[in-house]
Amino acid sequence: MSALAIDVGGTSFKVAIVADGQILIQDRLSHTSEPGDLDRLTEFCNGLMDRVDPDQRPTTVGMSLPGIIDQRTGAMVSAHDKVGYMLGMDLRTWMSDTFGMPAAVENDARAALWGEVGYGAGRGEKDILVLTFGTGIGVAALVDGKALHGPHEHGAILGGHQQINPFLGRICTCGARGCLEAEACGWSMPAVVREWPGIEASPLGTLDKATFSDVASQAYAGDPLALEITEHCARVWGVGIVNLVHVLDPDVVVLSGGLMNAADLMIDTIRKEVDERIWAIWGRPRIEVAADVYASATLGMAYLAEHATA
User: Fold this and answer.
1) Contact between residue 262 and residue 230 where contact means Cβ atoms under 8 Å apart
2) By 3-state DSSP, what share of the chain in percent is helix, strand and coil, each rounded to 5?
3) How many angstroms from the chain centroid is the CA of residue 69?
4) Cβ atoms of 291 and 263 closer than 8 Å
5) What local confidence, expressed as pLDDT, does residue 80 receive?
6) Helices (H) and strands (E) in the chain, counts
7) What is the residue-wise DSSP string for 276-292?
8) Which residue positions in the chain have pLDDT lower than 50?
9) b/e for 12-29, b at 16 or more Cβ within 10 A?
């Protein structure tokens, strides 16, 4: 049995066909954040399904989105400046009607959680914390074998907006000051680099809007200031992980998302920061990096779609 998995990003749809935790085929479709995108997405998905053998054709479909999903209605009820035309739309029914198969819909961080629980570094675990590092920072948690949703669907997923520098920190997209995202993530990296002391001595100082990819590239090349910035990111993220571990008490922490493509630059510092700061009488959670940092949400939506029929 295979599943059609759709991951809605800020600028594109990532679509894949997944069978038993293996991606058979995947592709991307850019979008304009307008309602007409759904017609283009439908055509794109049908074309992708036509590219696999008949016995590999999906029998379920799932979609992950960067917003809060009401599981009772199948609708996205909140999203920060992303695909706003989907707000209030029963996406589960839309997928089921459009593709003629059972459907699932979930927040993208929780989708990544299920990808790691079902097929990745958290397989077999009952208490796990997943953080996805990309444009922003997504968080999701499995507690005693159940995904934490909470009565308002906010459970864990706003972990990127924990305020770790609330009085002196950078203003976040949410309007608060000093959120984990605002101190270190994809969207805040241009400001982090621009404000870094002495940055004019680094090749990064010549860039108008340096990305995390730029920082990582210069760090790999041995640039001292780029290495300072990656060290800063690792330490900030380590503090954020400690805060979440103190609240959620996981056995395993899995790090995923595009920024973790450079995890080898930072993972030792992250683990050290957690080890030194955490208060846990039982020991320390195991901290792992996803095997494929770009695929967690895709695999998770396939997992959820397959289990939607169980």
Assistant:
1) yes
2) 40, 25, 35
3) 15
4) no
5) 67
6) 9, 12
7) HH---TT---EEEE-SS
8) none
9) ebbbbbbbeeeebebeeb
* Paired tokens of 79: 């999203």
From 173, 178, 147, select the one nearest 162 (Cα to Cα). Answer: 178
Q: Cβ(156)–Cβ(148) under 8 Å?
A: yes
Beta strands at 67-70 and 128-133: parallel, antiparallel or unpaired: unpaired
> What is the DSSP code string of 213-268?
HHHHHHHHTT-HHHHHHHHHHHHHHHHHHHHHHHHH--SEEEEESGGGGGGGGTHH
> Which CATH superfamily groups domain 2-114?
ATPase, nucleotide binding domain (3.30.420.40)
Encoded amino acid at 306, one letter: E
Q: How far apart are CA 48 and CA 56, in angstroms?
A: 11
Helix ranges (DSSP H) in 36-90:
37-49
**Quick check: do 2-114 and 124-289 share a fold?**
yes
Q: pLDDT tens digits for 84-106?
A: 899 999 999 999 999 999 999 99
CA distances from residue 20 to 13, 24, 58, 138, 254 in whole angstroms, order as listed: 22, 10, 12, 25, 20
Please compute Rg for the chain using Cα positions. Answer: 19
SS3 44: helix
Return the amino acid letter for 282: W
Which of 1.10.10.10, 1.10.287.40, 3.40.50.2000, 3.30.420.40 is the CATH number of 124-289?
3.30.420.40
Within 10 angstroms of residue 251's Cβ, the number of other Cβ atoms is 16
Which residue, chain included where needed, has tokens 């444009």?
Answer: 135
Question: Looking at this protein, which amino acid is placed at residue 231?
Answer: E
The size of the chain, in residues, is 310
Tracing tokens 């295979």 back to the chain, one arrives at 2
